[in-house]
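From the shared-data thread, chain only:
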Amino acid sequence: MNNKIKKINLNHSFFFFLIVNIFCFLIFKFTLNISSILCLFLILILGVSHGSLDHIKGKKLLKILNIKSSYVFYIMYILIAAIVLITWMLSPSISLLVFLIIASYHFGKEDTQFLISNRSYFVQLLYVLKGALVILAPLTFHFQETISIFKLLLIDSEVFYSILNFIEINNIIKIGIVFSFLSSVILFLNNFEIKKFVIFLDYFSILMLNLYLTPLLAFTFYFCFLHSIRHSISLAIELDQESVLSGFKIFIKKALPLTFLTSILSFIALYLLSNSYNLDSAVLKIIFIGLASLTFPHILLEYLLEKNEKQRN
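Structure, as tokens:
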């Protein structure tokens, strides 16, 4: 199964790099305007769906822990998401910082681990540095626009913005991008295989997206068509190891209920926020604060399941 995932993901990296080049060329050549509502729609359908099987993984974890009631999982999952939302309202600067670090690790790991057998703490650090490119790239090419997004996410601390300005003036963001590249080099050389050079295709795809596109559109394209699809491929193969197509059909059926529910809640929130903010601002709030509330329980579930399965084996 691991070889099948690796082969599909390798092809996916090539295809994604090609599509990124074509899409960025079209945007640059014809000045195409992609609406924020389309970005929200794509994230809800393609992005959020890759976590829509968490209830199945949750039941698997409960079985390992000998907990019979499945309601325990739903209560804890919703509770953690609610705590994240409340914490964000009370301390948005700290919440954003923690979210960016965790998201960096999640992106770096999920996008790369199919190539890496080493599970050392050093490799986990490399995942953080590699995944940080998703955050650092928009700050490099669209600093003020990214800062505006932070402001919309309730970040209003003068100290926070003073630190960001200090980072920009001293080129610390660019240094971070160099470290992200070095982490890709080290991961590439770890148990060297020439096919692992696709790590660099992903790296330059993310840079190109952020060079030519707005931060929201660049993130949407990456999140939906690289990160989420890659994770969904793994889930599809787990569901049916004989046929990826059959696995995807099963995945869609199982993911549809929670994806639909999340979409309904998101559009309700969009309607409520539209009374106080313009459409673009409301969409940005839903996407990033909403993703934060879903990412924490999603990553925690992945960690607990992986940890308990290792102990069991």
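Residues 136 and 176 are 7 Å apart (CA to CA).
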